[in-house]
Amino acid sequence: MLGLVLAFVLWVRHNIPNKVDWEWLKMGGGIFKAGVHPPAKKFNAGQKMIFWITMIGGLSVSMSGIALMFPFQTTMFADTFAILNVFGLGLPTDLTLLQEQQYNQVWHGIVSLGLMIMIIAHIYIGSVGMEGALDAMNSGEVDKNWAKEHHGLWAKEVEEESKSKPEPAE
């Protein structure tokens, strides 16, 4: 859970959705047309979706994990169902503690599996699935041409920022 908090604090400002992300999504991230890379800032819409799914899914798994660590002491699902029933869902709210544990176990397993599948796909796409990505992870830097191709708006920001800074004297 500490890792989630740290990741949130460090990266939330880069992962707030904006208009550029909608354009990126409309173009399918450039996956479906060869040579087409929609404009993106430092993080594209796909990366932002991974971030938010990880934050929400990680929080959910953490909460159900805490409930599993302290069995028969929480009513997380009954409380959640009561809130959802405001929308007319008709979910049961009079759950026994054993039923709560069963819901916790199923929820914890399903969300964890979903997160694992997503992360495996993300690792593939972000490493061998995209040329130059593995080198970027190893060095912490990206090639200027790669940045312009995959994150054009961010590359332009960095370029303009470096032009506005005076060159140090030698």
How would you describe the overall organization of this protein?
The protein has one domain (2-125): Up-down Bundle (Fumarate Reductase Cytochrome B subunit), CATH 1.20.950.20. The protein has eight helices and no strands. Helix 1 (2-11) runs antiparallel to helix 3 (45-69). The model has no long low-confidence stretch (mean pLDDT 88). The radius of gyration is 21 Å and the shape is elongated. By secondary structure, the protein is an all-alpha fold.
Mean pLDDT: 88
Number of DSSP helices? 8
CATH architecture label name: Up-down Bundle
Number of domains: 1
Number of strands: 0
Based on helices, strands and strand pairing, what is the structural class?
mainly alpha
The outline comes out as elongated
How can the largest sheet be summarized? Answer: none
- Provide the CATH top-level class: Mainly Alpha
Portion in beta strands: under 5%
Can I get a quick summary?
The chain is mostly helical and 170 residues long. It has 8 helices and no strands.
Topology of this structure?
Blueprint: H1 2-11, H2 19-26, H3 45-69, H4 76-84, H5 97-125, H6 133-139, H7 144-150, H8 152-164
Helix pairs in contact: 1-3, 3-5, 7-8
Supply database-style keywords:
170 residues; mainly alpha; Fumarate Reductase Cytochrome B subunit; 8 helices; 64% helix
